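Q: Structure tokens for this one, please.
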Amino acid sequence: MEDILNSIIKFFTVTLGNLNWGFLSEQFSNLDLRLLLEQLVYDEKSPLIFSSGLFMCMFAVFIVIYTMLKKKSLARTLFVVAFSYYFYYKSSGFYFFLIAIVTCSDYVIADVMAHMRSRAGRKCMVALSLIIDLGLLGYFKYTNFFGQLWSDLSGAPWHNLEIFLPVGISFFTFQSLSYTIDVYRRKIQPVDNLLDYAFYVSFFPQLVAGPIVRASDFIPQMYRPIKVTREMLGLGFWFVITGLFKKAVISDYISVNFVERVFDTPMQFSGLENLLGAYGYGLQIYCDFSGYSDMAIGLALLMGFRFNINFNNPYKAVSITDFWHRWHISLSTWLRDYLYISLGGNRKGRLRQYLNLFVTMLLGGLWHGASLNFVMWGALHGIALVVHKMWMGITAGAKWVNSRWWRALMVLVTFHFVIFAWLLFRNADVTCKGLFLAGDWGNLGVMLTQIFTNFHPELFVDVLTSYWHVFSLIVLGYVLHFVPDRFSQRCKRAFVRMPVIVYALVLIVVIVAIIQVKTSEIQPFIYFQF
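A: Here is the predicted structure, written as tokens:
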């Protein structure tokens, strides 16, 4: 840990040495202390996110104190829990009490359940955990959705309640549920005390937007001596830097300067521009969410903890099944292990397997948001998974399905299916009238109409010329995504072997790039709403 602290001090010495101190001192003299303090108070219009300058400064102070507490386990745990709760307060205000409710209830439930011999008693306790966690999630996220759905189906009036949606509630409730369910299944033993469990649930790198970290993966690391190796330091900076670049350079820039314009007013753009906007949104949502996950993984590594990878080049998938092995892996495996298998998985016949797949993805879509377009998006992916399972049964043993040309074709088909599904995810406006879906499908219908009836390919050169900076980043993003895995792994290993001063210089370059392309307002992460 001494080496790591020296490396961190050296890093910040180099970084600060590259700053214009004359400019900073001039700005500091004009600072109003009150305005500075306001930055530390919750502001719903400016949640604390990893790509903000405020968080970078706070984390720099945090990691120094964290390292100084390396030999004081209790003090370090208290410090991290306190910082994590403050981090959530900066994201959702005083709703941080929800984490405390989930933490205390599931800790007590798991502890009681672990000492029960009766299977029926343990079932009652895990059911209580489900009721509390899903009850909180249901109230804050789905009350108005189901109320409006009931109103549409029955004709009874419904007035939406003013319910604040706390950031990341879907993530920390699912994470806590993995703990109680695993204790119920006798896969893990309960933690030693409430403070340790609070550390696990509230650990700030993954608190508000994942990855959903399993108790079986994280809790054993809590009881080992904290050790940040040279490799972990390098990997930590690699993930933080690449995540920052994905989110704050690529995703935010193409979103503000092209994608959002097209999706908000598709009728004002040609079919060509709408199609390019769809490709842009596919890259935007990937860079946004995977960028956050990369930063979370990197920050955890700098603190001595390892998270499993959450994205693995999902647009290289050769099938929709392969896509869900690569996209938001922590959620897809959670749904598989705690929902799909609990429904029976593939153990009760082929038809039941298909139904279980469909229901799992349907509920996975609902997890993403309280709207019918998310449900339909999940249903669409569920149908695609079922079709792929059927196709695998038909082509089992065929050699041509493993040929290069067929796999390349399947990557192309899968990619365009996913892009089409993103249009439904992002832009549909669907309601229920009786037992039927209604509505004009929002801008989704307009975009599809423009693409198929008003394409205008002759505008291609003019569009590229007008938005050359946007499409340069889009092309760069997709090229980096589709480079061979061997090349990207070599780049990662080469970066890790570099001196710490190189980490500082690369981070400075990325920060300068962010400053050059940033908008006037911080762009929140897309998955904050989930």
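A few notes: The chain has a mean pLDDT of 85. Residues 15 and 505 are 8 Å apart (CA to CA).
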